Amino acid sequence: MHRGARATLLVTWLLALAGLGWIVSQRLHVSSDLRSFMPAPTTPDQRLLMEQVGEGPGSRLLLLSISGASDGQLAGLSQGLAAALKKDARYSQVLNGSFDLASLDPRLLPYRYLLSPTLDTQPLDEAYLADQLQQRLDDLSSPAASLLKNLLPRDPTLETLKLAERWAPAKSPQLRDGVWFTPQHEALLLVQTVAAGFDPGAQQQAIDGIREAFHVLPGSADARLELSGPGYFSVVIGAQTRHQADWIGRISTVGFIALLLLAYRSVSSLLLSALPIASAALAGIAALTLVFSEVHGITLAFGFTLLGVAQEYPIRVLSHRRAGEDALQSVRDLWPLLLTAIASACIAYLAFYASGVAGLQQLAVFTIVGLLVAGLSTRYLLPHLLPRRVRDVAAMGWLIRARGWLDRLPRPRWIPLLVALAIAAMLALAPGPFWQNNLAALTPVPSALLQHDARLRQALGAPDVRYLLLLQAPTEQGVLALSQLLQPQADALVERHAVDAIELPSRYLPTVAQQRARQQKLPDRAMLEHALAGALQGMPFRADLFQPFVDDVETARALPPLTPERYAQTPLGQRLAAMLVQRDGHWLGLATVSGVHDVAALQTLGADRGGAVHLLDLKAASESLVAAYRTRILQALLAAGLLLVVTISVALRSARRAWHVLAPMTLATFLVLAVERVAGIEISLFHLVALILAGGLGLHYALFFERDTGDPAEQRRTLHATLVCVLSALLVFGMLAWATIPVLRAIGLTVSLGVAFHFCLSILMAPHARQD
Amino acid sequence: MIAGLRQPAPAHTAFAEARFLKMLDRPLVVSGQLSWLGDDRLQRRVEHPRAETATIADGEVTQQRDGKPARHFSLKRAPQLQVLLDSFVALLGGDAARLEQAFEIQREGDAAGAWTLTLVPRDAHVAKTVARIRIDGVGDQSRCMHMQEADGDLAVDLLGPLAEKMPAEPTRAELQALCTGSP
Q1: What are phi and psi of A650, to 5 degrees?
Q2: What is the band of A227 on the pLDDT scale with cuts at 50, 70, 90?
Q3: Torsion over CA of A115, A116, A117 and A121, rounded to 10 degrees?
Q4: Percent share of chain A, pLDDT over 70
Q5: How far, in Å, are A335, A632, A648 from residue A343 at the CA level?
Q6: The pLDDT of residue A443
Q7: Which residues contact A111 (CB under 8 A, 6 or more apart)?
Q8: Residue scoring higher pLDDT (A378 or A685)
Q9: What is the 3-state secondary structure (H, E, C) of A338-397?
Q10: Taking a C-beta distance cutoff of 8 angstroms, is the pair A681, A647 a contact?
């Protein structure tokens, strides 16, 4: 091809990449919501988990502590931060221990007689009022006078304070200067985000908002704000994982470039060989954006990992070039084998598409499109651009000696049998459980953060993230009624220390029926005035002082009962709204529990309600979901394996040749599994994906070693290409194996071991060149 | 002068308090003992007509009545107590600097050794509730404390031996006479 034509092709290719990049930047919408990557839930618990993961009240809580200044300054900062966050729509609830009467909506004040339980046991009669008024006189001569003075004319029985006490967290931390403090002199705040707990993007915004609000407070420069809670953890872990993956990636990229320069001594070859893989990645993402409305972050991470196979294609082309031969001719000779590898991998990935799981389907589309683009561009575009004259690697002395040494290696027929027996023995002897179902264990929260969280959680009596008590009823009111019925049982459990606290939705709002019953018990104006006049006998209160009280009671008698919708405009109503959800035509109440000591006792709560009350163990449900997911992957893998056997057998037109390709690949895959199990590693989804990548690479090694060209020089080129591939894979994934974050280590270790085993076994099990 | 009022902690003094509140037709009268326990800790024990103990410590007020659970609230929400604490502790500790920090001070005195301190809170938040305090004394003894609230309510505390002289139904004028009269 002419220089001009080559330049045109290169420019066109680059323009096409830029165009794809533009499409991707316009259309790509990455979702970080774990739910879109998970398979469709099957059990009711799993379904609830999917709906409630990150949306349950407990998982949206952020625990804040402020330290590093005097108690007075910390209290001021706590108040300032709470005031700022209460105005921000990103937070549905902000608590710091201070109860401000002004925060109650004045229009709702008459509702206190319908919300407070006083009237259930105590009518507003003369005797009760007289007793209350006497107590208020004592209050007025006490230091608390200033707190009550303004409240008294309107609320002589202090219903407002009773409600404030009722709505305060069950186990409050100690108050200092009016706000919550830990025994370690940290001011405490509890913030509920509107955003779901497992949406790291939205949580990041919520956390940034808190930090910004804190930093603009006067005097905040010396104090230290620390956060905790599930949402914060997801952000921290995400950042840590990215950070570690980034620096490992930078080091291995440098090593990878050095390796290729050493192998091919050509900068232009190196740069050009990056084009197919860049095209693959961009085309893969572009295809995803066309087929799916949003792409999951994990799909991209898995997809880029699996695309590592495509780097092999240009390497094969570069290694297999002969002296004086046109690059196009080298590619034509290689193509049948390369096509077999690409086609069989793509066909195998079809099994993932058939799995029906959105995350795996995305993975399949991304990988198949990527591999096809990488393969086809390596075949039809790359050769036209490569430099015409190159050095033939087959002439290198060390390669001749290495090939000779390999050829002289003994290849006894019992090797597969021995390896299979070793695998079986290792799998049988391996310690611990086989599968790792707890995805969180792969991205563990640093223990210092966990300890801090446990300390704050204990001080605050904040709800458990793991358990959620579910109340189910046909209507919203039904849920509240059920909640009211459960209250005595719940109190009994707290009494027995089975659990520290249970927060039922009826704590914030009684049923309409109960509100009406209380309304019935309110005296009319004449009766109340009469009782009040009697109670005031001999007391120094001004005659008309309690007119606002009489008016409020009169108003309360005629109020429409408070419903969750009417309540929703207030902060407490939002708290309630988070506890009531509608699903499939019925309603669910989500009661949070704190400090679970006796799970079995907690499970008996409402056991006589015929399944309407149910303790959801979020951890157990999520683990069963992961197990179900793994089953789908394994089924897809089995189908992929069968497809691979058929494709390879058909392509090679020989069962014996197919055996030489597939046997080392299968054995190496199981060998990795066995070695990891013997080392005590529990196998997770990430290990499985890494095994698939290693299997893809192993397929190439076996295919190329199996190929018998009858030409020793070509055999040496095959060895050279395979060595470059193996070394680059070991470099990239071996680095990852040193990561401290288990998920990166899982991928790194599995692929490194896999590459090494596939290489050794495919050499040892290849048919001996000269004997054939 | 303020240094002369200093007493070692713990210092106890009897008190009788009359509160004139707008919402009441007649004043509320209680009596008991005020104690400075050192630092910023103050105890107000009421013996008549009903026992009640209020303790200020670490910015927190604890109020206890017989047969009732204790009630806690922040000192920030009870400016009267904050003022009481600031003035009382500064006077008993002989801490003029602290008094100066919390209040604008006016002092009057006569040759016989009788004196009057008028304290106006500097903190705007406190001043919204407590307009001023007046303390009457003779020599090294405080005799009376008047707390004038911004809404017109008034509390008058007779201190030490004077406490016994609190009438059953005092008037403002009677108390004024007691405070400024001869010991």
Answers
A1: -65, -45
A2: very high
A3: -120
A4: 94
A5: 11, 23, 9
A6: 66
A7: A556, A559, A562
A8: A378
A9: HHHHHHHHHHHHHHHHCCCCHHHHHHHHHHHHHHHHHHHHHHHCHHHHCCCCCCCHHHCH
A10: no
Place of tokens 């070509």: A714
Asked if the model's pLDDT at residue A32 lies above 80, the reply is: no
Q: pLDDT, tens digit, for every residue of B42-89? A: 899 999 888 999 998 877 888 888 888 888 777 777 777 888 888 888
Q: Yes or no: say if B126 and B142 are a contact pair by the CB < 8 Å rule.
A: no
Q: How far is the C-alpha of A525 from the C-alpha of A531, rounded, in Å?
A: 10
Q: Which residue has the higher pLDDT, A40 or A701?
A: A701
User: What is the tens place of the pLDDT at every residue in A474-496?
Assistant: 999 999 999 999 999 998 998 99
| Helix ranges (DSSP H) in B4-127 | 79-92, 96-102, 124-127
Cβ proximity of A95 and A537 under 8 Å: no
pLDDT mean across residues, chain A? 85
A726 with A757: CB under 8 angstroms?
no
Backbone CA torsion sign across A687, A692, A694, A698: positive
Query: Who among A137, A146, A545 is closest to B129 (CB)?
Result: A146
Give the pLDDT band (50/70/90) at residue A769. very low
pLDDT tens, position by position, A659-677: 888 999 999 999 999 999 9
The closest CB to that of B25, out of A98, A143, A540, belongs to A540
* Confidence (pLDDT) at A770: 42
Chain B residue with CA closest to A546: the answer is B23
Q: First and final CA of chain B: distance in angstroms?
A: 19
The interface pTM score, or ipTM, of the predicted complex is: 0.89
Same-fold call for A1-31+266-391 versus A400-429+654-772: yes
pTM surpassing 0.95?
no
- How many residues in chain B? 183
Give backbone dihedrals phi and psi of A213, rounded to 5 degrees, phi first. Answer: -60, -35
CA–CA dist B64, B104 (Å, integer): 33
CATH fold of A400-429+654-772 reads Multidrug efflux transporter AcrB transmembrane fold (1.20.1640)
State which H helix or E strand residue A771 sits in: none
* Angle (CA) A534 A539 A543, round 5°: 70
Please check whether residue A487 is in contact with residue A506, taking contact to mean a CB–CB distance below 8 angstroms.
yes
Q: Are A569 and A445 in contact (CB under 8 A)?
A: no
> What is the residue extent of each domain of chain A?
1-31+266-391, 104-167+514-561, 400-429+654-772
DSSP state of A445: P
Contacts of B60 in chain A (CB under 8 A): 175-177
User: Distance between CA A390 and CA A201 in Å, rounded?
Assistant: 49
- Domains (range + CATH), chain B: 3-176 (2.50.20.10)
CA distance A269 to A444: 42
B46:A141 CB<8 A? yes
Chain B residue whose CA is closest to A144? B78
Residue of chain A with shortest Cα separation from B42: A143
B28 chain-A contacts, CB cut-off 8 A: 137, 140-141, 540
Which top CATH class is A1-31+266-391? mainly alpha
φ and ψ at A57, to 5 degrees?
-55, -35
Query: Per-residue pLDDT tens for B98-112?
Result: 888 888 988 888 877
Predicted local confidence at residue B90, as pLDDT:
82
B169 touches chain A (CB under 8 A): no
- Cα distance between residue A145 and residue A135, in whole Å: 12
What are the structure tokens assigned to A626, written together? Answer: 């992961």
**Confidence band (pLDDT; 50, 70, 90) for A33?**
low
Q: Is A153 on the interface with B (CB under 8 A)?
A: yes
